[in-house]
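1st attempt posting a full record on here, be nice pls
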Amino acid sequence: MQPPPVSPLLRTAAAYAWRLIVVAVGVYGVFVVLGRFHEIGVALFLGLVVTALVRPLTDVVARGLPRPTAVAVSLIGSIALVLGVLALVGEAVAGESTTLAREFRDGLDRIERWLEQPPLRLNPQALTDLQVRLGQWLSSHRSTLVSTAVSGASHLVEVLTVLALALFSSAFFIHSGDRMWAWFCDQLPRRAVRGRWEVAGRAAWRTFTGYTHGIVLVAATNAVLVGIALYVLGVPLAVPLALLEFFAAFIPLIGSPVALAVAAVVALAAKGPVIALIVVALIVVIGQIEGHLLHPLVMSWAVRLHPLVVAISVIAGAVAAGVVGAVVAVPLVSVCWSVVTALREARRAEAAADPGPGPGPGTQPM
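the predicted structure (as tokens):
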């Protein structure tokens, strides 16, 4: 007795199912490998970011100097600029530390009095109990906090190692990254495969550099706007808060509001609720400027993703790898989509250039 024939729909579903299983296993394997060597992945990503930012400067310097010297001058100058900015921020924090501590104490007293007044009318004893319990919690968890600080020192060594590897790799990427990619493509077996990899590499690098330049320009614009606004409002630590806004802008959609929320807390403690409300309004204004002006204008040379795709990418990256995943998610998705688009266009161009065999003998074209 023969078994009943398999439905074509079921046969098609089974064919796609095992292919999806293979793809899922491959993706899982990639994430397992990246999880075991995530420091190397982060270092290479930072090296590519440094390359995208410093290589244009190196190309200009290389017009008058040998290429290795131009790479060294550009990297050392960029490192000196970053260290100078950090030194400026540290000096600003050190200079305002005493004033800031006094303003914070006065600000906390104002907040307590505001909470005790209408419409909240909180019990003063409840606020006192909260302070006492906070002090007791810090005293009881002192050993845990100390161990956390000690483990943080080991994490600092890991961070310095990642930064050193990023600078080391960026030096080679800047000097001869194009020759390294050409060598990789030459190792591929077939000419058609090499052509696809070359197309994919050009599209990926064009998108990555465009995204990197765009996000840095957006972050710098946000930081300047925030710094000017906080300085005009008299909020302390305007320069460090502007620098925090610069780095937070690398996490799309959620980075800037979080940084400005920190600025609002500082304004609330130092200047009172009125200035804090103005800073909250600033969050809304800068969010509108970033979302409707800066991103469409500055990111036009990179792949423009739908805001829903950006939000899902950021959340998925944060769930998978924390803050690093949230930063890497959007450029990774942009690069992947640009590669898919470039390969699709290359196939269409090949199909248009090679329409296939002509009509056979004895046949008439339709």
